[in-house]
């Protein structure tokens, strides 16, 4: 049975047990808790005292999640549990907490909300409750709907710029359940402004993905936990705490990916090039180019590096340029030459069997759940680390050129999950799947949604034209 379905059934069983006992305390027949949705209707109308139309909120996707928690917070008050800590327990362990309340003989039904006396709290209590609730709400929103992200490197220029602040949608692909629950809220890897870890690995939970509104598509700008890259002096973080990267998806599960002379192909079809895509060039000019002329092409920071002077006293630059900028610069009288820098560095799978480069790569089949391969020197070079490190095998290793799972040699292998191939739009200045391999499906964080702020760190000031731009 599907693991997500099992998780949902366990959640619902716990909730239903809690409903049954709470119904009985409120004078409602307990068996009515067995009817999904009708039980929520009874809670909203007969226990809490909301108007019947309020139940509509429980039908609207995404809204219904927050509406259900609001309803449960009201239920807590109707049964005398008014502290912020009760709300926190309801948020995180509702299938356990509701039955505990139901079976607790000291918990009594006090009546509908409009019949209850107002809650009296001191100013300190109100501030403490407000702060705790804000943190919990922000954590829930960050986990379930949207998370803020900053572009730290130029690997996606000119599509995304260093200094862009964007929101990453969790609801497009469906958010993941937490793997590392013991973590300080609103942190990632470390406590703010320190080198102190913000989590402990005492508990590691199985990870599931909630339903989303779409799947990863070729061309999507995706945020993911980077696999296969050594971090922090070799530190291996749990999956949900690995460093976030943002790249464009160019290969889907089952695609045969190939790069020929910089052009990406998926199963023989040309993958559309984004207009902002750029490459590295050697640009020779008659003299040093002044900043005003560079600004005309929006070139600054990492885009331009003065390398040296030539024998003819010309200035030699390395620049990252789009095709349109190259065409325009070739027309300038002070430009002597513009030459593409070929990407010749070693790439994945870092094996003498495959002499691929960043500009000429593959053919490489991207693993898909259920795809079976026969194992050999070449397939182990391509997929061995993926099988041992990312495909949910507890005991998998490669010894003497052979794959062992649970101590037994295997000659074929069937993949357990889907994988993707990600590349930066700044093709010659991007550490991506060409260098460290596939992105497992369980590493996908979300879809780049829109830019809400953009700060030009090279020139200073704000890039007003980028405000609220959708990410394409």
Write up this protein.
It is a single chain. The chain is an alpha+beta fold and 472 residues long. The chain has a domain at 3-143. The protein contains nine helices and 20 strands. A seven-stranded antiparallel β-sheet has the order 1-2-20-3-4-18-19. A hairpin with a 2-residue loop joins strand 6 and strand 7. Helix 2 packs across helix 3. The mean pLDDT is 90.
- Helices and strands, in N-to-C order? HHHHHEEEEEEEEHEEHEEEHEEEEEHEE
Task: Give the helix/strand class.
Answer: alpha+beta
**What is the terminal separation in angstroms?**
37 Å
Q: How many helix segments? A: 9
What does the radius of gyration come to? 28 Å
Detail the poorly predicted runs. Answer: none
Largest pleated sheet: 7 strands, antiparallel
Shape: globular
Please count the beta strands (DSSP E, at least 2 residues each): 20
Proportion of residues in helical segments: 25-40%
Percent strand equals 15-25%
Strand order, main sheet: write it out.
Answer: 1-2-20-3-4-18-19
What are the key terms here?
single chain; 472 residues; alpha+beta; 7-stranded antiparallel sheet; 4-stranded antiparallel sheet; 9 helices; 20 strands; 26% helix
